[in-house]
């Protein structure tokens, strides 16, 4: 970061995404599974090799400024509808916990964590190999 602030960049960005994820579930607009799939199969795929600004730069023919002109009003409307930052109350936490335990029982958390770690290591290896290829080398 360019100056001292609470939390790391990753935590701050994740916090905003999490607030909206909890809000979508709380409002009944999506299930926990819906949100997880959207991030893992959508944003996560893109964001594993480029950040949010490069993503929007490539998502409109004229780049970032074009993207902002086209979708800025949509994002302003979303922001205006969520000005109140709600906390994760006990009922909402219980709802999310219940939905997650239907998808993954508590006794399988460690096993799934190990699965995640293997995936992250494989993805990191793949990204290093692709970076070498992009630079004209061989993996």
Indicate the CATH topology of the largest domain.
N-(1-d-carboxylethyl)-l-norvaline Dehydrogenase, domain 2
CATH class division of the largest domain: Mainly Alpha
**Helix tally?**
6
Structural class comes to mainly alpha
Number of strands: 0
Percent in helix: over 70%
Structure description:
The chain has helices spanning 9-26, 32-47, 52-58, 64-81, 90-103, 109-134. With 139 residues, the protein is mainly alpha-helical. The protein has two domains: 9-103, N-(1-d-carboxylethyl)-l-norvaline Dehydrogenase, domain 2 (Orthogonal Bundle); 107-139. Helix 3 (52-58) crosses helix 4. The protein is globular. The chain starts with 8 loop residues before the first helix and ends in a 5-residue tail after the last helix. The mean pLDDT is 93.
Short description:
The protein has helices spanning 9-26, 32-47, 52-58, 64-81, 90-103, 109-134. The chain has 139 residues and is an all-alpha fold.
Name a few traits of the molecule.
139 residues; mainly alpha; N-(1-d-carboxylethyl)-l-norvaline Dehydrogenase, domain 2; 2 domains; globular
């Amino acid at each position: 970061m360019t100056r001292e602030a609470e939390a790391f960049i990753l935590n701050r960005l994740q916090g905003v995404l999490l607030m909206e994820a909890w809000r979508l579930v709380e409002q009944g607009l999506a299930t926990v599974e819906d949100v997880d799939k959207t991030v893992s199969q959508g944003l996560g795929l893109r964001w594993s090799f480029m950040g949010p600004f490069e993503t929007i730069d490539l998502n409109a023919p004229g780049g970032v400024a074009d993207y902002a002109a086209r979708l800025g009003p949509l994002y302003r409307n979303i922001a205006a509808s969520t000005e109140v930052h709600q906390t994760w109350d006990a009922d909402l936490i219980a709802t999310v916990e219940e939905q997650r335990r239907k998808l993954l029982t508590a006794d399988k958390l460690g096993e799934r964590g190990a699965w995640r770690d293997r995936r992250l290591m494989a993805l990191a290896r793949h990204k290093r190999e692709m970076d070498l290829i992009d630079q004209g080398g061989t993996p």
